[in-house]
Amino acid sequence: MTQELHIVGGGMAGSEAAWQAANRGISVVIHEMRPKVETFAHKTGDLGEMVCSNSFRSDDHEQNAVGLLHWEMREAGGLIITTAHQHRLPAGGALAVDRDAFSAAITARLHAHPNVRVSHEEVTELPDDGYWIFATGPLTSAALGQAIQRETGTDRLAFFDAIAPIVYFDSIDMSKAWLQSRYDKGETEEEQRAYINCPMDKAQYDAFIDALLAADKTEFHEGETAGYFDGCLPIEVMSERGRETLRHGPMKPVGLTNPHAPDVKPWAVVQLRRDNALGTLYNIVGFQTKMKYGAQADVFRTIPGLENASFARLGGIHRNTFLNSPTLLDDQMRLRSKPNIRFAGQVTGVEGYVESSAMGLLSGRMAAAEMTGASLPTVPQDSAHGALIYHITGGAEAKTFQPMNVNFGLFRPVDGLKGGRRGRKDRYKAYTDRAKDAWSDWLAAQEPIQSAAE
């Protein structure tokens, strides 16, 4: 094999694409501009660095679409998901990881692979020849973004993605807060105590909302528009939609009992999730924000238990770039106007670490098959991977295309099952059973891996 596969971007999608292709005998070059060219959100030059949450969300592969995506990626030997399990932290039914250990492991495994090399030079143009995968994510550089815009002939689409703050554990007042996962979810005591909970009564909640609404916010630059993805809304945007929005969202008080006052039901609860294996850092769940730094500290210290909070990182906001994939990409994730180029990850219009990794997995296998002349069956639409790729390459309405998490609404209905909430459990199990069969058949129909490294 004399030709190389060039992958631009060493995040979740790029790392997964490189692993899948390299394990099929392809020589891979990962072009990751960090640390030579920095972004405001990244802190290192590591591959697979997590810049927002440290959670891969639900690991339930029978009743949850993202958990099903986890299962499919594990069955396919996915680098991202297997490494996540190796560095997981207690998080109830979710898959959360020690972010530093996770990215260090991803970096080490790719550097150790005999078919992979890493370049830290920035790529600013779309090449006319060779095999390429662009997985530059939501922080695509300005120069490359301009090149994409010139090639596609359309304006880049963008929304704003916000980052949640991280608090030092030893600064949290545990005489007011307590450890508990909602509904004591988890198989071990550690899992059942994976979250720190800070309770609020009605007066405290109302004061918090008032402070949130009055706080100084980050201003947008001229020409920018704030089109948020609903799964990652800043808390102040949620609060502007109604005073009760937060307590029915990330601050909902359900499934929890305060051991300091077991007979008093909190009006609202702020949850923090462990962010590293040592348990020294916790991130505030669902608290993405565009408040200015000084305002953040003041507002968050009104939360009971966080009066003296010390922050390892305050929240932030960044521009998230993605393609109008239904019009620009074919069903092999290739750019229609330059079919030597594939796109993968969040830039294609999927949202979330898991979904980005899944698109990297598919693009890596597709590129490897094309380069070796191997037969790659069509990704089954009834799998979670298939539902996603079908959505972004043709199933979505191009005029209203927005980033999408995997969800059962993307799956074709199963005949004979009733709709509505009462039939949901049986329906979800039918979706996941069907998906597993389809995915297993798809994997089995592919040619054996030519080369692998651990």
UniProtKB/TrEMBL annotation:
UniProt lineage: Bacteria, Pseudomonadati, Pseudomonadota, Alphaproteobacteria, Rhodobacterales
Binding site for FAD: 9-14
Enzyme class, broadest EC rank: transferase
UniProt entry keywords in alphabetical sequence: Cytoplasm, FAD, Flavoprotein, Methyltransferase, NAD, NADP, Transferase, tRNA processing
Reaction(s) catalysed (UniProt annotation): uridine(54) in tRNA + (6R)-5,10-methylene-5,6,7,8-tetrahydrofolate + NADH + H(+) = 5-methyluridine(54) in tRNA + (6S)-5,6,7,8-tetrahydrofolate + NAD(+); uridine(54) in tRNA + (6R)-5,10-methylene-5,6,7,8-tetrahydrofolate + NADPH + H(+) = 5-methyluridine(54) in tRNA + (6S)-5,6,7,8-tetrahydrofolate + NADP(+)
PANTHER family per record: GLUCOSE INHIBITED DIVISION PROTEIN A, METHYLENETETRAHYDROFOLATE--TRNA-(URACIL-5-)-METHYLTRANSFERASE TRMFO
InterPro entries (UniProt xref): FAD/NAD-bd_sf, MnmG-rel, MnmG-rel_CS, MnmG_N, TrmFO
EC number annotated for this UniProt entry: 2.1.1.74
Transferase among keywords: yes
Species in which this protein is naturally found: Marivita lacus
Chief site of localization: cytoplasm
Domain MnmG N-terminal: 5-373
Location in the cell: Cytoplasm
HAMAP family: TrmFO
Protein name per the record: Methylenetetrahydrofolate--tRNA-(uracil-5-)-methyltransferase TrmFO
Known cofactor(s): FAD
Keyword hit for Methyltransferase: yes
Family named by the database record: Belongs to the MnmG family. TrmFO subfamily.
Annotated TM spans: none
Function: Catalyzes the folate-dependent formation of 5-methyl-uridine at position 54 (M-5-U54) in all tRNAs. NAD-binding protein involved in the addition of a carboxymethylaminomethyl (cmnm) group at the wobble position (U34) of certain tRNAs, forming tRNA-cmnm(5)s(2)U34.
Superkingdom, taxonomy of origin: Bacteria
